Amino acid sequence: MSIKSQEKESMLFKIAKHREVGLLGFIILLAIIIQILNPQFLTLENLNDLFTNAAILTILAIGMLLVLLTRGIDLSIAATLALSGMITAQTVSAYPDLHPLLSVLIGIFVGTLCGVILGLLVSKLGVLPIIASLGLMYVYRGSTFMVAGGEWINAHQMSASFKAIATSNIIGINTLIFIAIIVFLFFYYFMTYTITGRRIYAVGSDPESAKISGINIEKILILVYSIMGGLSGLAGVLWVSQYASAQGNTASGYELTVIAACILGGVSINGGVGRITGVLLGAVLLGTLNNALPLIHVSPFWQSAIEGAVILFAVLFNVIVNRKYEKNQLLRRVI
Amino acid sequence: MEKNDYINNRIILNKREFSWKTYFLQWEWLLVLILALIIVVNSTLSPYFLNYNSITGATMTFLDKSFIVFPMVLIMIMREIDISVGSTVALSAVTMGVLYNAGVPMILALLICILVGAICGFLNGYLIAKYQLSAVIVTLSTMILYRGLAYVLLEDESAGGFPEWFNYFGWGYVGGVPFILLLFVAFAIISSLILHRTVFGRHVYAIGSNTKASKYSGVKVDKIKIIVFTMAGIAAAITAIFLTSRMGSTRPNVADMYELDVIAMVALGGISTAGGKGKMPGAIIAVLIIGFLHYGLGLINIPAQFLLVITGLLLIISVTITNIKFKGSKRK
Fold first, then answer.
1. CA of A317 to nearest chain B CA: how many angstroms apart?
2. Residue B250: strand pairing partners
3. pLDDT of A247-276, one tens digit each?
4. In angstroms, rounded to a whole number, what is the distance separating the alpha carbons of residues B178 and B173?
5. Do B305 and A319 lie within an 8 Å CB cutoff?
6. Residue B155's closest chain A neighbor by CA?
7. How much is the pLDDT for A7?
8. pLDDT mean across residues, chain A
9. Distance separating alpha carbons of residues A215 and A210, to the nearest angstrom
10. Could you tell me which residue, B261 or A19, shows the higher pLDDT?
């Protein structure tokens, strides 16, 4: 093998190793194409819109990252989001003078409670995460309808300060973006520099060894699902505040978009693999697609098909490059 | 002679000894008990429940998605999952509707509907088997893709106006028995035989208990996976035909969340997503349990939302019980 071709290949493998770089490159390429087709894309106003819409997805995807890292999955998050959003909205409509911060705390509390129940089912009773969260999805979604009693909470029932949580601007930038950045930075630190964060990775990559080295797996699992629940609760409040309406079917099916963002970001369903920066980029890529397709006059009915094709392509590309990389590593060992 | 006796004493029985106790302690009998309980409660709650017409009529409303349950049992025994089936139903139903409205004869449209389902399933199976991808990832992406294609084909319109005889699928009777119920029974028998009485079925179990070991012992893992996922696609197309026939028209958003309902039925039937465990009859009874539960609660006007909660709780409780049971048997 000539040195030149080896160098060329190692470039490809560097991209494979640092998936974030490849993803970022793809997003930039996409942005350039869209910008050429419609110069309105890269304006401050539109970017503000784009990131505002990606903010809730990012918050949820970060939680899902933790769950996926432990070889779990949580299908109940959209229902948790709806339930905590609904309860918060009802509290706000009953007590219009409630401080916005307190309403956020109510949402987080309800969400965490939902998450703890799932965590207990998964860790203490050993129910498989996909089944446990599927069952709870039904329970929480049904509870949302029952709590609501078939009614919607509309904009006029919410106080201005509550709606301002997700719609006000700070120096021209939407508050949702700030909240997402804070969540991102916190969890970046948590996952990279704290012992508990590293333990989450350990539990996912090899539960047996993690157990032997003294990690309390049950505790980690409960923690992870509680965090996921808490973030869903936060997202619920933000969602209701942003759209100024709480319904029984709020965010129905959104859990799968969140998982898709994680997969795009390079998180492995088999646990232990995935970085928070990748998840951020995955969410931004989905947000960009959602935002840009209408701008370049793609019919909204094509949106979902394009989204699906992009995810499938990303997954296949990733697998093919990884296989080549592994093959190459093996060959090198032989030589 | 002595030698022979020696050998005779060491004969290893091919089959486990039959005992009534272990036979009746099976999960499937508990399910039968739950089903009986539901029917008893239903008939005390409503005087209209326990007659032939009411029960057969009820089956027409909930059996359409049950066709996907059969292949889903095989898929989940193999430790895989398919969450794209709901979208496959939508895509094949919409294709059928669009083609018929474009002037294609109904028979041909029906065949193409089945073909579309088969292609969707084949693509899932091919990607999962050949690239060794996780089924969650593949079917999640194709779920979005297939649903998206359905929207591309029909946008926000609906396709209908099917010929008179097409209603027969959803509403027709054969000798006093609903056509869909007859087909359900036929499918139940055939798929039980396939899973429990054929080499193919044993291979499915082998893949679920240990994929690598079964591969090295000559089981064609890839081929079986592709076949089973294609079967799931075809089953989704059959569901599409019955659903469209019952509703009279089709839209891109039909069969929303069907995948989750089907997985719930299979899990309730005692098939563990950890692979290699569970039996077909369990899933068949689970279909009837959830169906009659919904129908019965509908009779006494319990809101649909409450059904969600009950279904969820039923799923969690039943799976927890099986878990405890399996843990107990392990300790022995």
1. 11
2. B159
3. 888 887 788 889 889 988 888 878 888 889
4. 4
5. no
6. A301
7. 54
8. 86
9. 6
10. B261
What does the alpha-carbon distance between residue B149 and residue A308 come to, in Å, rounded to a whole number? 9
Strand partners, A170: A173
Residue A334, Cβ density class (10 Å: 0-12 exposed, 13-18 middle, ≥19 buried): exposed
The total of other beta-carbon atoms located within 10 Å of residue B225's CB is 24
Q: Are strands A169-170 and A173-174 parallel, antiparallel or unpaired?
A: antiparallel
Between strands B159-160 and A173-174, the pairing is: unpaired
pLDDT of residue A316: 84
Q: What is the pLDDT of residue B309?
A: 87
Q: SS3 sequence, chain A?
A: CCHHHHHHHHHHHHHHHCHHHHHHHHHHHHHHHHHHHCCCCCCHHHHHHHHHHHHHHHHHHHHHHHHHHCCCCCCCHHHHHHHHHHHHHHHHHHCCCCCHHHHHHHHHHHHHHHHHHHHHHHHCCCCCHHHHHHHHHHHHHHHHHHHHCCCCECHHHCCHHHHHHHHCEECCEEHHHHHHHHHHHHHHHHHHHCHHHHHHHHHHHCHHHHHHCCCCHHHHHHHHHHHHHHHHHHHHHHHHHHHCCECCCCCCCHHHHHHHHHHHCCCCCCCCCCCHHHHHHHHHHHHHHHHHHHHCCCCHHHHHHHHHHHHHHHHHHHHHHHHHHHHHHHHHHHC
- Residues A248, A84: contact at Cβ < 8 Å? no
Nearest to A130 among B142, B273, B308 (CB): B273
Tokens of A100: 């916005």
Nearest-CA residue of chain B relative to A130? B273
Interface confidence: ipTM more than 0.85: no
pLDDT along chain B (332 residues), means of 10: 49 60 74 88 80 82 90 93 93 95 92 96 95 87 92 88 87 86 93 93 92 91 96 96 92 85 87 80 92 82 80 82 58 36
For an interface test with B, the pick among A301, A307, A324 (most B C-beta atoms closer than 10 Å) comes out as: A301
A153 forms beta bridges with A246
What distance lies between CA A179 and its chain's CA centroid? 14
- Between A253, A259, A301, which is nearest B151 by CB? A301
Distance separating alpha carbons of residues B128 and B221, to the nearest angstrom: 11
Backbone angles phi, psi at B160, to 5 degrees: -155, -150
Q: What letters, b where the CB count within 10 A reaches 16 and e where it falls short, cover A194-209?
A: eeebebbbbbbbebee
**If you measure CA to CA, which chain B residue comes closest to A127?**
B320
Torsion angle, alpha carbons of A66, A72, A77, A78, to 10: 120
Q: Is B160 helix (H, G, I), strand (E, B) or coil?
A: strand
Res A80: pLDDT:
95
The greatest distance separating any two alpha carbons of chain B, rounded to the nearest whole angstrom, comes to 83
Cα angle for residues B26, B30, B32 (degrees, 5° grid): 110
User: How many CB atoms are located within 10 Å of the residue B158 CB?
Assistant: 16
In the predicted structure, residue A236 carries a pLDDT above the cut 90 = yes
Which residues, 6+ apart, have CB-to-CB distance to A268 below 8 Å? A68, A274, B134
Q: Judge contact between A119 and A74, C-beta under 8 A.
A: no
Cα A5 → chain centroid: 38
Mutation target among A67, A71, A123, A134 for the B interface, most CBs of B within 10 A = A134
